[in-house]
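Pipeline run #58 for the internal structure catalog. This entry was flagged by the ingest filter as a single-chain record with no existing model, so it goes straight to prediction. Upstream metadata was stripped on purpose; only the residue string is passed forward. Reviewer on rotation: M.T. Logging verbosity set to normal.
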Amino acid sequence: MHTPQPSSTPADTPPTPGQGGGGSAAAVDAFIARWGSSAGAERANYQIFLAELCDLRGVPRPDPSVADEAANRYVFDKAVTFPLLDGKTTTKYIDLYRKGAFVCETKQSVERPEKDPLSVADPTAPKARRKSGTSVRGLADDNPPFLLVIDIGHSFELYADFSRLGKVYTAFPDARSHRFALADLYDEAIRDRLRTLWLAPLALDPARRAAQVTREIAARIAVLARRLKAKQHDPESVAWFLIRCLFAFFAEDSGLLPKGAFTDLLVSMKDSPDQFVPLVSEVWKTMGQGGFSAALRTRIRKFNGGIFREHEPLKLDAEEISLLIDAGKSDWKDVEPAIFGTLLERALDPRERTVDPQQFLGIEINLRAVAIAEVVLWIGWLQWHLRDRKSPESFSEPILQAYGNIECRDALLEYDKKELVRDESGKPVTRWDGVTTKKHPVTGEDVPDDTARVAVERYVNPRKAEWPQADFVVGNPLFLGKLRIQSALGEGYAEALSQTLSALPRHAGLRLLFPITLGSQPRTVRRFGSL
């Protein structure tokens, strides 16, 4: 029995761009000339076309089929069996199948306009797309990440489901560019995309690319944040500075700013760090209000949204500018919005990292976390529209809006004010800060450092917080038992909770208070969940 060779199994490591046998300009010319004139003979042509496409991209040709269907991991005419209502079965065939990579269905339509083969809608395309999706459901042990629909001699269409559930395949990489013509094979990026689809399809997953961006730049951003805080900049200023830098990188890579404009400006100042503050300030001010930027020598659209309400950057030296330049050279266009939150949190005091950047936020007590959450949500919204056939020019100005839909306040309590608790002599009463520890001189264990003190506060007129109207509520409340609430959040806060939520179970922790508070709201929420 023939056993497929190891080359039949895709790898996770992407191939080197621009390489691979048969990818020369002459080979592309010959392939397009040979197949551009073919028409109306799918069954006669598809195996030859696909085999020569493999040669063009320097990937293995399909293996011969064998009697053991489970061994047919990369073959033409892969048999898939479907049950019928009468208990019998029917067998259908996938034009080309590669386990763990793709299902490929081919067709060959009538002649298309030579200058623009994608300009005329092909009525057979939806049928081929549905057939490929149905074929996935017939595979016993595989939900490949890609569906590939090829109109021989005319066009290619890519659809992806990186969840590997085999249920929802969406246009890849987006609805504007998932379909390309035969002549687009002249584009090296298109050829590399096809080669990667064959050899390492999961390397095309945007989430993996986003993770790669994180690995490339997280260390540089962390070093820059530490350097800035070492210069005695407060964490809020550092966080806002990084927010504006990172958003500018995203904007230039997604077409909302001229390509590479902000990074090129940084490069021009590398040896003249004294120019950094005035030039970057001018760019950010113009991003906030719109207009011509002298620093970038071009008109900038109005962003607004509160991000650039303040536009004065922190002063950087040449080495710190280089750290920013290295970060800007990464591709920020498809980065997952949560990564922005992860990177920005590095600039915050670890004790204040109360926000999980993967949450959808509506109420947050930390002012800096509110700013991060707003940026994360806006970037996600912009990416969604850019992937849904929207061009960067389609956004009306201002591109961002300051809706104020993320409220900076306590999610459990409302109160008129906070007062310092004073002793009989009028001095403020203090307590252990609930965080700082020291080593016990005997046991060596971490124990509370009683010299780390914070003032005790009293909450005046405490009452239940009213939450915004919502269909779905998702939160990430702290895991604090009843005894830890007092040490971590303060006696005054614990007392205010006790007064306000008097019907609480005796040992209710902080996490339990959120669904209890939700249940007391005058509305019906469809779903509630915690992370």
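catalog note: The radius of gyration is 29 Å.
catalog note: Confidence is low (pLDDT under 50) at residues 1-6, 347-361.
status: ready for reviewer M.T.
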